[in-house]
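Input:
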Amino acid sequence: MFPADLKYTKDHEWLKPAGDGTALVGITHYAQDALGDVVFVDLPEAGEAFGAGEEFGTVESVKTVSELNMPVGGEVLEANATLADHPEAVNEDPYGKGWMVKIKLAGDLAGLLDAKAYEALVGAESH
Amino acid sequence: MSTSVSELMKTPLNAAHRALNAKMVDFGGWDMPVQYPAGILAEHEAVRTRAGLFDVSHMGEIRVKGPGALALVEHLTPNAVSKLAIGQVHYTAFLYENGTFVDDLLVYREGEQEFLLVVNAGNSDKDFAWVQKHAPAFDCTVVNESPATGQIALQGPLSVDILQPLTKTPLDPIGYYFFTHGEVAGVKCLISRTGYTGEDGFELYCAAGDTEKLWNAVMAAGTPKGLLPAGLGCRNTLRLECKMALYGHEIDDTIHALEAGLGWIVKLDKGDFMGREALLAAKAAPAPRKLVGFKTLEKRDIARDHMPVVQDGKQIGFVTSAAPSPTCGINLGLAYVPTELAKVGGRIQIEIRGRAVDADIIPTPFYKRTK
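Output:
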């Protein structure tokens, strides 16, 4: 539920550094579970840059919509094109096939939560 | 601030929902399942193609009985109660004098002078007070049976197949919007061929203490046939596809029955009733707004409840309910728009998070079952 190699935000995004200055970004298991069946993910084009906390897209489920916020500043290198036809990947595999954007990191990761801190946050929200 | 779970009201099936790992939400003060692990899409599809089982025990039941019962219900509701046969049920409303909604409801005719009124959970106390307030002029008793009553709704094309083995009451002869009394799985029930999904199905009313036994029996009989427990999430998408009104969305105390497209429940010639004067006047003057169905044109443009309908940067209407439609595969909604724009084939614009997007007015209901 909370992979240790990821960094997290309190808004329930995750970030996975590749070690080469790039990272993948998606939403957590907790977020996809709260949304329910995802039916559409609106993602930016490659080349667009966002600041930390800035909205870079939206994820729509049957019952609601949620903003996607960038965990750290960065430029979008690639958006996950398979989500256009398979938005359900966000529900089925939020940390794998359900990734949303690949970014070139422009900020440091110091402000992000580690798995333990995120688990504590989610535990507090669901009780 | 959300209400803590301990303060929420619970139906007799609360433990059953939790055992099924339902996701529970605060629904008008009730702790209710919004979905089960299968999810809204799967539950929606189960109801359209097989069957789904809903807990609707939160609904309110008010029994009106006595020599003045018919006259009281006729006075409080716009539909023609005297035309109901014993064993028949119809959709109607409580209206204020100005023709707007106290609530919408079902009226069951249990006897010549005995009626069961089934109202929305969130309005139950208001409705009971409303009926009580008007009852003294009529010779009848008014009893709030809500706390003592459980209700489950079996909905979907396999409903008869699933339910018939559990009861000696022949189900096929019960027509749509008719009901009878019988035993289901050994539980005394009011068996009503009604629902809020647009599919064939039954709403079963029983003593609160029997609800879990009844639920478990229907679940056991239906599961091998593809029945899923179904939550409020798919109940909303199912009713939206059929353009069935939801209080607080398509109807409320600012919207009158004619602009809501519910002229068919308003029998202006039946004699006097609450709201009749206002609706007669409304009928004489052209309504300034009308409820229409729309679809947005782009996959990414998903309208939601309460979003504004705009024209040249100004709000001219509002969305009452909207969602991606699981059955139709497009993004649907209902909206109040100025009457001059309310034509099928017309184009309106919805403001979605600051962006005005195109939507086409299309015929409703969006979905109609074939048999």
